[in-house]
Amino acid sequence: MNALDRARAAVADSLPARWRVVWLDNSEEPTGIAPVCPDEEHEEADGSVYDCCPDPAIDTEDVDLAAYLVALINADLGGGR
Questions:
Q1: How far apart are CA 3 and CA 20, in angstroms?
Q2: What is the Rg, in whole angstroms, of the alpha carbon atoms belonging to the chain?
Q3: Do the bridges between strand 32-35 and strand 58-59 make them parallel or antiparallel, or are there none, so unpaired?
Q4: Would you state the pLDDT for residue 79?
Q5: Phi, psi at residue 4, to the nearest 5°?
Q6: Is residue 15 classed exposed, middle or buried when 0-12, 13-18 and 19+ CB atoms within 10 A define those classes?
Q7: Which residues, including other chains, have CB under 8 Å from residue 60's CB and lie 6 or more apart?
Q8: Which pTM value belongs to this model?
Q9: Strand partners, 35
Q10: In Å, how far are 26, 35, 69 from 39, measured between CA atoms?
Q11: pLDDT of residue 38
Q12: Residue 9: its pLDDT value, please?
C-alpha cells in the first residue's frame, strides 16, 4: 500500500459523505471547502457556511484548488454514502 492509499484509508470513515466549494471570506470566488450541510433548508448549491453546517470548513485560498479537492474527496468517498 502506497502513501496515498494509506491516507485515503485513514480518513475514509471519518470524513463527511459529500463536500462542496464554499465562500469563507470576501474573495471574489469561493476558495474554501466544507462538507455538504445536512439541514433541509440549506441548498447544496449554496456556497455559504452557516451555523448549521458541519466542520471542518477549510480555506484553500485558490478557487481551482478548492474545486480539485472537492472533486477528489467526493470521488474517493464514492460521491456520497
A1: 25
A2: 13
A3: antiparallel
A4: 54
A5: -65, -45
A6: middle
A7: 31, 32, 33, 66, 69
A8: 0.85
A9: 19
A10: 24, 12, 23
A11: 92
A12: 83
Question: Per-domain residue ranges for the chain?
Answer: 3-76
Residue that has been written with the C-alpha cell 470576501 in this structure: 26
Amino acid at 7: A
Give CA–CA dist 81/79, Å, rounded.
7
CB 35 within 8 A of CB 61: no
Closest CA relative to residue 16, chosen from 59, 69, 74: 74
What residue has cell string 466544507? Answer: 34
Q: Which residue has the cell 472533486?
A: 71
pLDDT (tens place) for every residue of the chain, 81 residues total? 899 888 888 887 788 779 999 999 888 999 999 999 999 998 888 999 999 999 999 999 999 999 999 999 998 887 544
